[in-house]
Batch of 4 targets.
Target 1
Amino acid sequence: MTAPARDHGAYCREIETYLCQKNRGHLIRVVGPAFERVRGWAEAGVPMQVVTRGIDRKLERSHAVGRPRRPVRIEHCEADILDAFDEWRRAVGVTTGAAAAGESTAKKPGATGPATATRRGPSLPAHIDRVLTQATTLLALGEPAPGLHAAVEELVADLDALRSEARGARGTARAACLGRLADLDRRFLERARAAAGPGLDEVVAEAECELAPFKPRMAAPVYAKARSAAADRLLRERFRLPTIRFD
């Protein structure tokens, strides 16, 4: 859950509990300067799910390079948490209110202003190949909801047909491929929502919880769009669904 700004203590304790679990029972207290950082996240409305995702990323990267296992401190996870928060904001369309405050109260270490460089992403064919890999992996696992595998099989067929067209596509041909990917993403999410059944209500409730700190500052249409985007993101996470559109 997202902690209200007035309940910094509960927000901090929830982070301490998660850190304790990840540190194999070793409790690292979030006090002093660390607490001030965490308070900035709470005031910025950083959802707890985003904090835990950032902590997990930090640990996964440390394990991948074979570093000795030492208790992780929340300060070490700050850059990953703020990266995850930026991704969440872009995904759900939150750019105002408390999120804007987060840019000043929860800034990355050493940051002096907006980033001017952008990282080069994967090519369009590489993106399609990656989505195909994720989709075929889903088919190899147990079906998380009735009807979902049928939707994945349909997606694989559509992507296979599109893959050859995407290679070397330029100009209007590339734009057409991007449009088809966006359409496939929308159709696939519609199938996933239908497959979720009553569980979709739980996903929407969780999305509303994440957006609670921002709702008073958002116009009704903007909030409705953000809630839909947040629910879609949570649905992807719950079912491990790929993002098909190419942004």
Note: The chain is about 65% helix and 0% strand.
Target 2
Amino acid sequence: MSTETLPQRIHYVYWFQAFNAVSWQICLGSPLILFARELGAPAVVLGLLAGLAPLTSILQLFMAPHAERIGYRRLMLSGWSARVVTLLFLAALPLTAGYLPAPAIIGLLIAILFVFTTLRGVATCAWLPWITAIVPRSLRGAYLSRDRMFISLATVAALAVAGTFLTDADNMRAYAVVFGLSFAGGAASLYFLNRIPEPARAAPAAAQIQPSRWRDLLHDEPFVHLLVFSVVVQVVVLSTGTFVTIFVREEVHLQDGPILWLTSGASLVGMLALHLLRSRVDRLGSRPFLGVAFLWWAVYLLAWFFLAAHLVSGAQVIAPLLMLGAGFFTSMYELALTRLLMNTAGDRPATTQYFALQSVVVSILAGLAPMLWGWLLDYLRTVHILAGAITLNGYALFFGLQWVLLGLVFLALMQVREGSATSTSALLYRALISRPGQLMAVPVRRRVRVRRRRR
């Protein structure tokens, strides 16, 4: 049995993640997209806003070889402090609506987000190597479940409050308050960031601090397979979340406040996944849970297609259920993927470069994908295709294409390996048949014992 324990000050990590989540869930999430749409921004601009953070993460490639020498805490604190300051400008931007035309405000919004995400891109390469260095290998699943739990709780609170404010008739003033909340969360996160322990490492040898060649990392087959899978998932599935928000706003006719409440509720449901995986992911492995997430995406995207094509009724009920379900399986995917990445790259030399390369490659494509998806959706707005008695509009074609592209996700998943992990089919058998059967057998055995005693 492992005697490893988490660092004594690990709770500072959790609180940093919580307040940081309050900040970025607002300034990079649904409230930002809804604000831009309120200003009349087209889908391609929404895609640009969604893609800025991933695209500017390329800066990690320049910083990663030097992160350990600079110091993880120093690099993170510098970048995070500067980016928090930019949120003051974001909070003031909605108040200019009475003085500036909407295109000018959209332009300023893009500029502010560009500065914010650039500062984030410079510093973020230090985060995952830092955490990997202080969290023992056998406890990474347990750590990640608690970490994501704090993030989910903060997300629920932030989006619920944001949704309440955005039910106000004066939307611009409400958006200023919401973005102010983002600044407050970011400022609070700095207090806890500065108290996270440094890795307890001996001074590295000269050979260890020499940067590796980036192309050498691509000869690491397990890492490359995981990289390809995460890229395909990000492009095909996760990069289109922005347009699900727009679909439920424009086609299902949900208002901004309820949309944010649903997003908050999805994070709450995601906490259930984190609770269920807390010990199981370290025991069973990450790979089977990635398989379960894939099965969910197949059902999820097909359901959105049916709603968009008006093949089923009850969109006011089905759409919220899909959004809540997505919270559960997205939490499952992110925890399983992050743990597998930490275990794959965390013990290699040039660990920081491994994490930076994965983040940058995924992020560049994830940054381009929302813009391309947005351009495609703008193009499909006026397209209607007759397929028998069914009329496929732009959204139906959009979700249908995503569902077809899941074939690429499946092929990439088949290449991902984890030596000690169980299979997806074994996990499903255990969760859906074996475990329920055991639970149902308990009262039967109790009744048998009672009858025997009476005899």
Note: The CA atoms of residues 75 and 123 lie 6 Å apart.
Target 3
Amino acid sequence: MPGESNAVAGVLHERQRPVLLRFVTSSLVVAEMEARKIKHASSELWIRAIQPALWLLVFGSALAGVRDIAPSQFSYMAFITPGILSQSVLFIAIFYGVTLVWERDLGLLNKLLATPAPRPSIVVGKALAASIRGVFQGLLVLALSIAIGTGISVNLLYILGVFGVVILLAMCFSSLSMVIASLARTRDRMMGLSQVIIFPLFFASNAIYPTQIMPEWLQLVAKANPLSYGVQAVRSLLLTQNFTMLPTDLAVLAGYTLGLLSLASLVLRRIAS
């Protein structure tokens, strides 16, 4: 059949392309497919934006008068804004594995794995799509924090840097979510495991209080927590403008992201089985 011959020719042509080019194009195609899902379910993004707004307006306002939580040169509202921004990205990315399990149940994941796209490119594409959601959340939190006058920097270059950190955070935790999906295997278990992991990640970080006031054992946990490095990087860009630790924060966060992307690529077939 002519149609089948064209399809086979297309597959052969795809496999003959340079590996790096095939990887990049496959990743972008998967990311574009996932982005179209966001377009058709945009209400989910607005609903998820309610939680960080409540954290910032209610929790931040309630503790604004408490001294010695934030460094004296900043208000607590300013101090907490980078943490709430990073938290919103964490919350939206860590549940990405639920979508993966849903695609498995519908047979979509097996079809995707049957394409010539390299397996790591599928993971990278899905992680990039999660970063689109993260950027949207980041925009909403930034807009709200500027509107209520928290005192964060509105320097365009620094804000662009913040979105670079947001992309890394979203890719990191969406990859972790894919790894969790390989263990959970069902949507109910996936939701349960995500809930178990998400709150220790958030509260054992420097998102809503500095690590200096934590007990020593919790400081060690916070130093091993990738969210802490993301928060610290965002805080240096939006608040302190002290970039001494920024290269280290970005390097550690990038290392976590690459490690989890690699692990997710290895277990992707397990999710589909």
Note: The chain has a mean pLDDT of 79.
Target 4
Amino acid sequence: MKPQMLIKGVEWEGQIKDILIEGQYIKQIADSISVTAGIEIDGQGKALIPGLINAHTHAAMTLFRGIGDDMLLMPWLKEKIWPNEALLTHEDVYWGAKLACLEMIKSGTTAFLDMYYKLPATAEAVQEMGIRGVLSCACFDHFNPEQAGKSKQEIQSLFAGSDAYGPRIKFALGPHAIYTVSGALLQWIDTFSEEHNLLIQMHVAETEEEVSHSVKQFAYTPVRYLNKLGVLSPRLSIAHGLYVDEEEIRILADKGVKVVHNPASNMKLASGTTFKFTEMRKAGITVGIGTDGCSSSNNLDMTEAMKLASLLGKAWRKNPEALTADEMLYAATGQGADILELKTGRIAEGYLADLCLIDLNLPAFTPNHHFTSNLVYAANGSCIDTVICDGKLLMQNKKVPGEEEILKRVTELAKKFR
């Protein structure tokens, strides 16, 4: 018999329910469930939400939190990030990713879409920490055919060994951007992804400089350039997508491309503010939310990301009715699950048991006139009390086993980056 977990008397959608988990999945939701489960959780004073999904980040960049703050994007990359990344070892990435997983668990994230180097190190950390990761190997060729060949070899090698990562980890492809990856390599990656049914994520239309450079170098804006290359597909998720016009939104919708909004890094790097969330959703585009990496957003708190996305969208539109709390929670759960192609992000029988219990005995939820509004506008990730992923208990009473060692090891390892 599969192991069972029972959550008793938890608030869900304004009602008090019992939730029975059997193995990896939600087995039953009812007013009262009488079974003897291996683990029973008292849900009194708590609310249930799906595990949050961080649809774009660079996990091991927790190592660079606070390095190169208050800089423009390209100088930040060239002077601070890329030189430090050249120093990274497998051990660095492993512990940096463990810290990222710890931070995500403690703030309610149960799945994330990553792009970074030394993918096996991140996979090892994710497997040990118990959450889900769709891990894409960061790819650059800088328009150098020799480097493109090396990138292809690395992708093929990593993919060949990806079955060893375990069922909670999916292999994906991560061409960095159109200004660091040649069109020929992008086309090869698209073909490889189609052959093996792999997701792709890349940074697209993040800054005005990127758009002007694209027009100058390729004679097209970024989305039109990718469309000309023939690499837009439902397998592609683009991060940022700030600078897209009405026609480009239609192109993305027609091709089934997903888009991830990263409000914290967009504001911190002053990349832009006018993310067209409403227009994209009306066009039928799946839109998720991401934190980006800790070196450009400084934390991995998806509750904070939801709030920033909503307030930013209201502010530039001068419309308080735009980007509601309910829309933000759906973007950070159901839409994120659709981007990662996971049967999670929703609380329903038959769905994966990736769940969070919110502590309602906090000022942010007092009074609790509207739970989702309080979650998005008043709370932050510290409201998460319990995290379950794949039917397993990862955090209870805000405590993750082994967190002290992770903090200690990362503190020691990160000294060389100062």
Note: The longest helix spans residues 90-106.
